[in-house]
């Protein structure tokens, strides 16, 4: 369905004007029907001679009043949103549906005076570099409303949004920001104007893009004007056009939800465009490592303090006296150094290490075990003072515990920030349109990554930037785009353009921008490819998978678990089978796809059974025999029905994963389509490790606990 077809037309179902309108009025309505009526009436009386259309987007359809009012306007087109989508998103709906050469974004509390629209159109027509033109706004009493401003800076934020503004209400910074000393009868280029009334050129929207929908309310106008300037378009204040603005954004000043939304938008704007935060974002990986190192350092020392305190408090049960803290100083320094090095060697500071509990537990346990071995060996190899064994024995498990707890707190805080989209790492995606769309879908399924993708699907978009002259090359144009958009990292698909990516990579990395290259062979590489070195030349190294289906550790664990379950659940299974026989229920047999596409015949008790491991073990007791043969596992790939085999993607059927099916899979309930389950199966094979199995098992147990 096209955007335009989502709207209903005005009175009599007439088309809004004959032919293509010159201007599209876009009004976002929210619970102000009286103001909407007055706004529409002012448009009808002042712009009757202009070929135009009026798009009314209702963000709060409490009743039919707004639609009824719109229907009285012959050129109004009404759209109802089922919920409040935010100002920017609603405006973008109007931009997508509007047919005019220009868009006049209007608040419903604006009264359009005769000649004001023509004046804006005339000013924009005389200067093709104008992207936005704004009128002079008056208060209802006729006084001037200061509607043009300079861009926000940190001092302006502090004076406008904190108590400092009350202390210095006439500070020079505030006067300059509000342009209080500027003659508002003069037309001039400004930084930005209030979004209550903005005339926007269609060409500028196509070049810059619509409003940023991350701003629910407030600051979307500032952001839009900022992006216009970054792309070379002017924002012009034109006082020959006069409109009346009845509303002074009181909600942004009074304590309450409106103020909170305003503060959130303020922070989001600063987060988006602040050079300081941009600089920090580009070094977020290093900062994260530093935080983890400091956290581990604190955990190790807190563990020692706890162990020492425990030994001190339990002194009565020991025969030997308690040694002073000073005796442990050398040991503590040595232990700190060894523990941090061991954690680093265990990969606990790698930026791409996963944050799942199993991965963290395994890595930290390895590091602490290595630390313990080195500490014990040092007492034999070197002349060391005598220490309390109790302190050392208690210290090691406490160190492991504190490290995991501290890291969990850090990851939780990091996840909280990501979930609120307050810290998004902006990724420039130079990819063909189909791949860019696929990346968007993948990111939607994994929002906790904290990434924001800005796709660039062809070179024409950056080469067409009106910067007073054509950029020297695609490399320079792309670098300008990256800097304008505050992009922290660039991902280049090798087949993005006809030009070889080597020069582009060199230019971007030379400017300090990290780059990832997705090769043309990506469909064949699947998982596990790493860049390596071959006789001094960089080489893409595709390692053989550590196959879950051929792992002797996994086989031992599955065999032990199966033998235990066979013994524990034999009697419950026989009782359940006997009860099922009395009820006339037999055994259900299903044909599934196992490892390497092999067909498996799996038996289970028929009937509806609730979830849970214990009941699953009883119901699917016959499957435990498959565990002994290595054809099934507690954690494995998603088992497809054999009847659905022909419907699976051809690439999947050609190279089916070499891993056993399992009760717990990486696909989980989030994967709803066949393609998503196939992708999850392939990812499981590529990432498989015992730690991954442990993480999936823990995650399943947590979800079961949450469901209860």
Can you offer a commentary on this structure?
The chain starts with 22 loop residues before the first strand and ends with a helix. It has 27 helices and 22 strands. The model is unreliable at 1-7 and 9-17 (pLDDT under 50). By secondary structure, it is α/β, with parallel strands linked by helices. The strands form six sheets. Strands 1, 2, 3, 4, 5, 6, 7, 9, 11 and 12 form a ten-stranded mixed β-sheet that branches. Strands 14-13-15-16 form a four-stranded parallel β-sheet, sandwiched between helices. The chain has a two-stranded antiparallel ribbon with strand order 8-10.
Structural class: alpha/beta
Task: Please report the distance between the alpha carbons of the first and last residues.
Answer: 42 Å
Strand elements, count: 22
Principal-axis shape equals globular
Rounded to the nearest angstrom, the radius of gyration is 33 Å
Strand content: 15-25%
**Proportion of helical residues:** 40-55%
Question: Residue-averaged pLDDT, rounded?
Answer: 81
Low-confidence segments, ≥5 residues, pLDDT <50? 1-7, 9-17
What's the helix count?
Answer: 27
Largest sheet: 10 strands, mixed
Give a nutshell description of this structure.
By secondary structure, the protein is an alpha/beta fold. Residues 1-7 and 9-17 have low confidence and may be disordered.
């Amino acid at each position: 369905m096209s955007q335009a077809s989502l709207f209903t037309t005005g009175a009599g179902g007439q088309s809004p004007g004959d032919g293509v309108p010159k201007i599209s009025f876009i009004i976002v309505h929210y619970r102000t029907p009286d103001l909407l009526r007055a706004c529409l009436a002012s448009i009808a009386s002042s712009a009757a001679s202009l070929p135009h259309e009026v798009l009314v987007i209702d963000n709060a359809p409490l009743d039919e009043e707004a639609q009824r009012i719109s229907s009285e306007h012959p050129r109004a087109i009404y759209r109802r949103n089922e919920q409040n989508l935010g100002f920017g998103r609603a405006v973008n709906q109007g931009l997508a549906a509007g047919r005019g050469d220009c868009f006049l974004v209007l608040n419903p509390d604006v009264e359009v005076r005769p000649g004001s629209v023509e004046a804006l159109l005339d000013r924009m027509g005389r200067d093709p570099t104008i992207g936005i033109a704004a009128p002079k706004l008056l208060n209802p009493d006729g006084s001037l409303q200061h509607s043009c401003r300079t861009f926000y800076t940190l001092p302006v934020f502090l004076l406008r949004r904190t108590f400092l503004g009350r202390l210095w209400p006439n500070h020079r910074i505030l006067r300059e920001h509000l342009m209080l000393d500027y003659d508002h009868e003069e037309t001039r280029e400004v930084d930005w104007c209030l979004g209550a009334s903005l005339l926007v050129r269609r060409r500028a929207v196509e070049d810059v893009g619509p409003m940023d929908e991350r701003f629910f309310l407030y600051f979307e106008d500032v952001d839009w004007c900022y992006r216009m300037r970054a792309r070379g378009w002017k924002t012009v204040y034109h006082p020959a056009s006069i409109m009346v603005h009845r509303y002074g954004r009181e909600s942004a000043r009074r304590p309450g939800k409106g103020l909170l939304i305003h503060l959130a938008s303020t922070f989001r704007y600063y987060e988006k465009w602040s050079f300081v935060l941009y600089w920090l974002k580009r070094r977020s990986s290093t900062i994260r490592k530093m935080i983890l190192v400091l956290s581990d350092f604190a955990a190790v020392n807190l563990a020692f303090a706890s162990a020492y305190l425990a030994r001190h408090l339990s002194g009565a049960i020991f025969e030997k006296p308690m040694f002073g803290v000073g005796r442990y100083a050398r040991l503590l320094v040595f232990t700190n150094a060894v523990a941090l090095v061991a954690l680093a060697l265990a990969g606990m500071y790698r930026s791409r290490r996963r944050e799942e509990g199993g991965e963290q537990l395994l890595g930290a346990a390895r590091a602490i075990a290595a630390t313990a071995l080195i500490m014990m060996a040092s007492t034999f190899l070197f002349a060391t003072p005598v220490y309390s064994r109790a302190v050392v024995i208690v210290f090691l498990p406490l160190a492991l515990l504190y490290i995991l707890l501290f890291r969990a707190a850090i990851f939780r805080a990091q996840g909280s920030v990501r979930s609120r989209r307050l810290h998004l790492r902006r990724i420039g995606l130079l990819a063909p349109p189909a791949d860019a769309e696929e990346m968007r879908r993948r990111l939607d399924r994994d929002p906790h990554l904290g990434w924001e993708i800005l796709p660039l699907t062809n070179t024409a978009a950056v080469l067409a930037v009106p910067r007073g002259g054509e950029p020297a090359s695609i490399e320079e144009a792309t670098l300008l785009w990256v800097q304008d958009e505050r992009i922290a990292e660039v991902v280049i698909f090798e087949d993005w353009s006809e030009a070889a990516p080597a020069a582009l990579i060199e230019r971007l990395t030379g400017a300090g921008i990290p780059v990832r290259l997705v090769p043309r062979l990506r469909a064949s590489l699947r998982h596990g490819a790493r860049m390596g070195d071959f006789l001094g030349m960089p080489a893409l190294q595709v390692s053989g998978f550590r196959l879950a289906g051929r792992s002797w550790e996994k086989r031992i664990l599955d065999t032990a678990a199966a033998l235990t379950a066979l013994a524990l659940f034999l009697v419950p299974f026989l009782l359940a089978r006997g009860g099922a026989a009395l009820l006339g229920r037999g055994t259900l047999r299903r044909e599934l796809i196992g490892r390497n596409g092999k067909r498996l015949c799996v038996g289970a008790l028929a009937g509806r059974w609730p979830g849970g491991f214990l009941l699953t073990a009883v119901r699917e007791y016959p499957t435990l025999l498959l565990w002994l043969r290595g054809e099934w596992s507690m954690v494995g790939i998603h088992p497809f029905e054999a009847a659905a085999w022909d419907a699976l993607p051809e690439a999947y059927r050609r190279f089916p994963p070499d891993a056993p099916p399992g009760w717990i899979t990486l696909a989980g309930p989030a994967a709803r389509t066949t393609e998503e389950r196939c992708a999850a199966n392939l990812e499981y094979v590529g990432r498989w490790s015992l730690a991954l199995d442990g993480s999936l098992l823990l995650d399943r147990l947590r979800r079961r606990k949450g469901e209860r």
